[in-house]
Design goal:
The complex is a heterodimer of chains A (about 325) and B (about 350). Chain A is an alpha/beta fold and about 325 residues long. Chain A is built from 10 helices and 12 strands. In chain A, the strands form 3 sheets. A 7-stranded parallel sheet of chain A has the order 3-2-1-4-5-6-11, sandwiched between helices. In chain A, strands 8-9-12 form a 3-stranded mixed sheet, with no helix packed on it. Chain A has a two-stranded parallel ribbon with strand order 7-10. Classes of the chains: A alpha/beta (about 325), B alpha/beta (about 350).
C-alpha cells in the first residue's frame, strides 16, 4: 500500500519522526516546512516531496493537501512566550485551513496532534481517558494550552459535522534527542546537576518521540471508520523514580539530581482557582502533578506497543540522536 | 438538515458580528456553521469564540459548500444588497444589519429577490426591541398617552470615541452616499417610523457648523409626515453629549426614551395649583429618573443588561418566526421604507436646499 502522505511541521521534533516512519514504510511523503533549513531536515528524514510554505498564507493549505491521501498535522507553535496571535494563527487557524482543504481535496484521513495538556487536573486517583472533558478553564491556562484546547474542540466538532475521517492524537510529554529531559519540572543547576521538582512516585506521562510518531502513523493508516481519539503515553505507570533509575542504568552516575518533592506546593491548592494567583498556582501544580492517562484504547484498537523500550529511549535521548537509521 | 436546528452563516465578521454570535448562542434552534469575511483573519479571530465553524473569504464558495439555511449579512452597508441577494438565491433566509441597503433601489431589489425565492428577510432594527422601547410600546398601546400626535427621534455621534470613522479615512462608511451619518441615521428613522408610520412626505435641512474636520455635513434635520402622525428626526454628528433618544407626544402625556441608559420618562400634565404644579413637574421627573436609574443598575448588577439588548431579542424573534412560519420581527417592507426615508436625507435636490442657501447667504 503506497500512498501520498502530507506531514505538516515536518522539521519539528515529532514531525520529522513521522516523516521517517512513513518513508520507511514506503509511503510517498510530502513535507510541508517553512524554511530551507526545515526542508533539509525533512529531506534527511526521507521526505520525497518538499514544499516550503506557511499554512497562514493564502492557498498554501490547498496546494499542500492536493493529491495527499492522508494528512498528518504535526505543525504547532510550542513556546512559552509569544503573542496570542502567534499561537492562534498556527495552532488553531492553520489547522482549520488544513481541515477545510483536506475535506475539499477528498483526503481519506486527517490526523491531528493535540495534547494531554488540555485536560484538567483530575480528582485524586482518577484516570484521564479519551472521554475526559477538556479543562473548562483552558482558555486561562496560557496561550499554548488555550490554542491547543481550541484546536482540539475544532477538530472534534469538525469531525462530527463533516464526512472527513479524523483522528485526534493526544500525546503526553514528548521527550526526544534534542535535549535531556529528566522530569516534567527539571532544570539544570550546574553542569550535570539537575533540580527535579517531583514526588518520586509521580506518574510522568512521557512518550519517546519515535514511539509517539509510531502511534501517529498507525492512527493515520487506519482504513475506513470515522472519528477516533487516542492518548499516547509509553508507560502509563512510569514514575519519576523509575525514570531516574533508567538514567542511572544508562549513564551511570554522570547525572546527579536534587529531588524536591512537589508536595511542598500542596498548600497552593487552597488559592481560589479562578483568581490570577490561583491560576498561576494551578499551572505549577499541574506541571508537577501525578496524572494517570489511560492508553488502553490505543493499545487495544491500534495494537500499539511502544517500539523503543524505556532504557533505549533514555540512551538515545542522552546520546542526542534517535538511534540508527534503518 | 433537521427542522429543529438551522445552519447559520455570518457574512462580515467585524464588530457587530460578535454580538450576533453571542445572541445566536441563546437561540436553541440555530447553530453557526460558517464565518465569511473578505479579510479571512477577521473571520478567524471571531472563530476563536466558536472554533467548530468553517471559515471562508469567498462568499459564493461558502454558500456552495455550507448551504446555510440562514445568513446574517453583517458587511459594510454598500455590500448588503449583493450579499443578501446571493444568500437568498442560494436558498437562505436573511437577517441583514441596518440599514437594509445603501439606497432604496437596492433595498427593494432584496425584497423582490426574497419574494421570488420564497425566503424571508429580517432587518436589524435593533432598538425597536430594546427593553425601554418594549415598555414604551406597551404604554402607548394601553392608551396612557392618548392620541399620538407626533414624535421626535434624536441620534448623536460620539466623536471622542477612539477609532471612530473620522479618525480612519479608510473606514467603509466614507464610501456611502450619506457618509458616516448613513450608519447612524437608520436608528432614528426606524424609531420614528414605529411611532408615526411610513413617511408620506419628508422635508430636510442640512448644515455644516465645522466642528468635525473632514465631515461634509454634520447636522441633519428632517420633518416627516407619517401616515399616523408628524415626526422630526435630528441627526447630529457635532452636538455633545451625544444622544440617542425618542420623544413620543400624546394628547394626554408625553414619553421620553433614552436608549443609551435605557431610561423611560413619562411627562404628565401637572396637578394642583399653578405654583405647586411647576414644582411637581420637576419633582415627578426627579423621582422617575431616580427609580429608572435604580432599575437599570439592578439589571446591570444581575447581569441581565448586556450590550445590544434589542439585537438579542430581534435575533431570537427572527428564529421564532422562521420556526413558526410567521412574519419576521422587522420585515423587508419596513427596511425598504426606512431606506427610502434615509435617501431623502442625502438627496441633492431635497426641499431643504433653498433654505440652506438663504442661511449661507
Amino acid at each position: 500500500m503506497s500512498y501520498t502522505a502530507l506531514v505538516t511541521g515536518a522539521s519539528g521534533l515529532l514531525g520529522r519522526h513521522v516523516v521517517e516512519r512513513l518513508a520507511r514504510a514506503g509511503r510517498v511523503v510530502r513535507a510541508l516546512v517553512r524554511s530551507e533549513q526545515g526542508a533539509q531536515i525533512a529531506r534527511e528524514a526521507g521526505a520525497r516531496d518538499i514544499m516550503v510554505g506557511d499554512l497562514r498564507d493564502e492557498g498554501v493549505a490547498a496546494r499542500a493537501v492536493c493529491g495527499a491521501e492522508r494528512v498528518f498535522n504535526c505543525a504547532a507553535t510550542v513556546r512559552t512566550t509569544g503573542s496570542w496571535e502567534d499561537f492562534a494563527s498556527v495552532n488553531v487557524h492553520a489547522t482549520r485551513r488544513l481541515l477545510q482543504a483536506s475535506l475539499e481535496a477528498g483526503a481519506k484521513r486527517f490526523v491531528h496532534v493535540s495534547s494531554t495538556g488540555i485536560f484538567p487536573l483530575p480528582a485524586r486517583r482518577q484516570a484521564v481517558t479519551e472521554d475526559t472533558p477538556i479543562d473548562p478553564l483552558a482558555p486561562k491556562r496560557g496561550h499554548y494550552t488555550k490554542s491547543k484546547a481550541l484546536a482540539d474542540e475544532l477538530v472534534r466538532d469538525w469531525a462530527a459535522r463533516h464526512r472527513l475521517p479524523v483522528t485526534l492524537i493526544r500525546p503526553g510529554h514528548i521527550f526526544g534527542p534534542s535535549r535531556p529531559m529528566f522530569g516534567r519540572l527539571a532544570r539544570p543547576l550546574k553542569g550535570n546537576l539537575y533540580l527535579v521538582l517531583a514526588n518520586p512516585n509521580s506518574l510522568l506521562g512521557f512518550t519517546w518521540v519515535e514511539n509517539c510518531a509510531d502511534a501517529v502513523v498507525r492512527a493515520g493508516e487506519v482504513t475506513g471508520g470515522g472519528f477516533a481519539c487516542y492518548n499516547v503515553i509509553d508507560d502509563e505507570f512510569l514514575t519519576q523514580r523509575r525514570f531516574l533509575e533508567a538514567v542511572r542504568r544508562v549513564a551511570g552516575s554522570k547525572y546527579r539530581f536534587v529531588m524536591v518533592p512537589a508536595s511542598i506546593f500542596a498548600p497552593l491548592r487552597l488559592l481560589p482557582p479562578k483568581s490570577r494567583l490561583g491560576n498561576i498556582a494551578y499551572r505549577l501544580l499541574r506541571a508537577c502533578a501525578s496524572i494517570h492517562y489511560r492508553t488502553d484504547k490505543l493499545r487495544n484498537e491500534l495494537n500499539w506497543q511502544p517500539p523503543v523500550p524505556l532504557d533505549e529511549a533514555v540512551r538515545r535521548m542522552l546520546a542526542g540522536n534517535s538511534g540508527p537509521r534503518v | 438538515m433537521s427542522a429543529s436546528s438551522l445552519a447559520v452563516a455570518f457574512v462580515g465578521c467585524g464588530y457587530i458580528a460578535e454580538t450576533h454570535l453571542s445572541a445566536l448562542a441563546d437561540v436553541p434552534g440555530a447553530r453557526l456553521v460558517a464565518l465569511c469575511d473578505a479579510d479571512q483573519q477577521k473571520a478567524e479571530r471571531l472563530s476563536e469564540k466558536k472554533p467548530s465553524v468553517s471559515v471562508y473569504r469567498d462568499l459564493d464558495r461558502m454558500l456552495e459548500s455550507e448551504k446555510p439555511e440562514v445568513v446574517h449579512v453583517l458587511t459594510p452597508v454598500d455590500t448588503h444588497a449583493q450579499v443578501a441577494v446571493a444568500a437568498l438565491e442560494a436558498g437562505a433566509h436573511v437577517l441583514v444589519e441596518k440599514p437594509m441597503a445603501a439606497d432604496a433601489a437596492s433595498a427593494r431589489h432584496i425584497d423582490e429577490v426574497a419574494r421570488k425565492a420564497g425566503r424571508k428577510v429580517c432587518v436589524g432594527h435593533n432598538r425597536l426591541f430594546d427593553p425601554v422601547m418594549a415598555r414604551a410600546r406597551s404604554m402607548i398601546d394601553s392608551g396612557a398617552l392618548g392620541v399620538i400626535v407626533g414624535a421626535e427621534a434624536v441620534q448623536g455621534f460620539d466623536r471622542t470615541e477612539p477609532g471612530n470613522p473620522f479618525e480612519n479615512p479608510q473606514h467603509w462608511t466614507h464610501r456611502l452616499p450619506g457618509g458616516v451619518a448613513q450608519n447612524l441615521a437608520p436608528h432614528p428613522a426606524y424609531l420614528l417610523r414605529a411611532v408615526v408610520g411610513p413617511a408620506r412626505k419628508v422635508v430636510v435641512a442640512r448644515s455644516r457648523p465645522g466642528v468635525i474636520p473632514g465631515a461634509s455635513v454634520e447636522e441633519y434635520r428632517a420633518l416627516v409626515e407619517g401616515e399616523n402622525a408628524l415626526g422630526a428626526l435630528s441627526l447630529s454628528l457635532a452636538a455633545r453629549p451625544f444622544a440617542t433618544t425618542l420623544t413620543v407626544f400624546g394628547s394626554e402625556a408625553t414619553l421620553f426614551l433614552n436608549f443609551s441608559n435605557q431610561t423611560l420618562l413619562l411627562r404628565r400634565p401637572p396637578k394642583g395649583p399653578k405654583l405647586v404644579a411647576k414644582a411637581w413637574e420637576n419633582m415627578d421627573t426627579a423621582v422617575q429618573l431616580t427609580m429608572e436609574t435604580a432599575r437599570t443598575a439592578w439589571w446591570v448588577l444581575r447581569g441581565r443588561m448586556r450590550l445590544y439588548p434589542g439585537l438579542r431579542t430581534l435575533v431570537r424573534r427572527f428564529y421564532e418566526s422562521l420556526r413558526d412560519g410567521t412574519e419576521p420581527p422587522v420585515p423587508a417592507s419596513e427596511g425598504v421604507e426606512v431606506v427610502e426615508l434615509l435617501d431623502a436625507l442625502w438627496a441633492q435636490e431635497s426641499v431643504a436646499q433653498p433654505a440652506e442657501k438663504r442661511q449661507a447667504g
